[in-house]
Design brief:
The complex is a heterodimer of chains A (375) and B (133).
Chain A: H1 3-8, E1 11-18, E2 27-34, H2 41-51, E3 71-74, E4 77-80, E5 92-96, E6 103-105, E7 108-109, H3 112-120, H4 149-153, H5 166-177, H6 184-191, H7 205-209, H8 216-232, H9 260-263, H10 270-297, H11 303-313, H12 316-343, H13 351-374
Parallel strand pairs in A: 1-5
Antiparallel strand pairs in A: 1-2, 3-4, 3-5, 6-7
Helix pairs in contact in A: 3-5, 5-6, 5-8, 10-12, 12-13
Chain B: H1 23-51, H2 59-67, H3 69-95, H4 101-130
The chains are: A alpha+beta (375), B mainly alpha (133).
């Protein structure tokens, strides 16, 4: 928090992503906004629109983190603009639209596929009491404010346009847990797809950014456990082709960050880094597998070729590469164990302890291996 | 919040266009081969660096080592498991990029062919090396 120091300053510089319909790429405009204590990012954006650029487009409504309409990326992290104090952000603030959805204009993205995915899984709606409430009125998922921050933060949504996304999968889990007259088989069938619950790779960013304090990642794990339980218990749900248009971002690539969504360091957490590390080490080890086969093939050429290779392999630089390979192996293995446990719905209440244990034990194994190789 | 009054799609009523492969089994296969790899890799490392005196270094030591039938079976099992796990993992990463269904099917078939070729080559290598000396 640096609210005190910022109060003394006169202005905060906002760098805002701008994009009009039909434009392929966004550009950034900079605005200096006079700071006042308690100012939120939404206050600043409205101030920009009022005083400097009436053309700036953004969505907002309630101003107290209830409507979920002002979701955007602030300094790279998904936030609700209405409850994000400018005083916490420093003197330069980057504002961008949510990722994974087509940008309609400036900070406004197309939320239709997001809502359609929620509806496709038969999301639980507000409780109808004595005939009051839904279905004729507005509908929404219980507790979830449908802001889309979870989906924007998800590294898989960044690349996979067919992935159902954390919000819809969490809604599916809610339907399964408490059907309220709905048939959970439909939600399970949608979730039990290659691009459904099984696509999640436990980066946990969705739960980190949820402004309502929900745990979509935990819900996905519970959903997978339920799917496994049914499958192993020979009560498999029916498999159906998912709706092609019922996806976050639909068929369009617009707003999707691709691999940049995996590698963007801003505002990310340990789960995201293990996700990236798991993938990079996996690719590295795949290369090593084929390299290993090539090395072994030297044995078919007789003792002379092999002995020359052993000389090279004894060089300290080569041994350092061995340590690097072992480190990759350890990181990948521990990440795999963690994903297997959490992804099967086991030890979900001990995520942090699991992460700390993995880091400490992995570090010790790599250190021991390095000492062994160089001794 | 946005006011919406859409008709909820009746997902259950949609026709089953095509039976997809059971993704739960893909997940279980990845976890299963991963668990098996932990065991086989540990055996592989212990056997090659601790059981074999001073580790396998010379040509004659490696050939003698692979002529042991137990070692041969362990190494072959390791080869099959690691190839399966690695290519299934690669498929997962490639699917993260959301290829179209036709591309997805081609990828799966291509990786299956690559897997069979890798295991075949590795097995040939093991047999050839064990047959020397």
């Amino acid at each position: 928090m640096n609210t005190g120091s910022l109060t003394a300053r006169r202005t905060v510089r906002f760098r805002v992503a701008r994009r009009r319909r039909g434009e392929r790429e966004c550009h950034y405009d900079e605005f200096d906004v006079p700071y006042r204590p308690g100012m939120t990012v939404l206050d600043a954006l409205i101030s920009i629109r009022t005083d400097q650029d009436p053309g700036l487009t953004l969505r907002h409504s309630c101003r107290h983190a209830s409507c979920g309409t002002c979701g955007m990326r602030v300094n790279g992290r998904e936030r609700l603009a209405c409850v994000t104090p400018v005083g916490d952000l420093g003197d330069k603030v980057l504002v961008e639209p949510l990722s994974g959805a087509a940008v309609l204009s400036d900070l406004v993205v197309d939320m239709r596929p997001f809502y359609e995915a929620l509806e496709a899984v038969g999301r639980p709606q507000l409780r109808a009491v004595d005939g009051h409430g839904p279905p004729d009125g507005p509908v929404r998922l219980e507790d979830c404010i449908e802001c889309g921050l979870c989906t924007s933060a998800c590294p898989l949504v960044a690349t996979d346009r067919r992935y159902l996304g954390p919000a819809a999968l969490a809604a599916a889990e809610r339907v399964v847990r408490e059907p309220r007259g709905q048939d959970p088989a439909a939600a399970l069938a949608l979730a039990d797809q290659e691009h459904g619950a099984w696509r999640c790779h436990v980066a946990l960013e969705c739960s980190q950014v949820c402004p309502a304090g929900l745990d979509p990642a935990g819900a996905i794990m519970e959903l997978r456990r339920e799917l496994l339980r049914r499958r192993l218990g020979h009560k498999s749900p029916q498999h159906e082709e998912p709706a092609e248009d019922g996806r976050w971002g639909g068929r369009r690539r617009g707003g999707r960050r691709g691999v940049r969504g995996w590698l963007d360091p801003r505002g990310r957490h340990s789960g995201m880094w293990t996700f990236v590390a798991g993938r990079l080490t996996g690719l590295g080890l795949l290369c090593y597998l084929y390299l290993h086969l090539i090395v072994l093939s030297l044995l078919t050429r007789g003792p002379g070729t092999w002995d020359r290779f052993i000389e090279v392999a004894s060089h300290p630089a080569f041994l350092a590469l061995d340590v690097l390979m072992i480190a990759g192996l350890v990181v990948h293995g521990l990440h795999g164990v963690r994903v297997a446990l959490l992804g099967s719905g086991l030890l979900t209440g001990t995520r942090k302890a699991l992460m700390i244990t993995s880091v400490v034990s992995g570090g010790l194994v790599v250190l021991t291996a390095a000492l062994f190789l160089f001794s | 919040m946005l006011m919406r009054q859409r008709q909820k799609p009746d997902v259950a009523a949609k026709p089953a266009a095509r039976q997809r492969s059971a993704p739960a089994w893909v997940w279980l296969a990845q976890v299963g081969t991963g668990a098996l790899l932990l065991v086989l890799l540990t055996l592989h490392m212990i056997a090659q660096h601790y059981v074999a005196a001073a580790g396998l270094r010379t040509y004659a030591e490696v050939v003698d080592w692979l002529r042991n039938p137990v070692v041969f079976v362990i190494e072959l099992a390791f080869l099959v498991t690691v190839t399966w796990h690695a290519l299934l993992g690669l498929r997962g990463i490639l699917l993260d990029f959301g290829p179209r269904e036709r591309t997805e099917r081609l990828l799966t078939r291509g990786l299956m062919i690559l897997g069979v070729a890798t295991v075949s080559y590795g097995a040939w290598l093991l047999i050839t090396i064990a047959g020397q000396g």
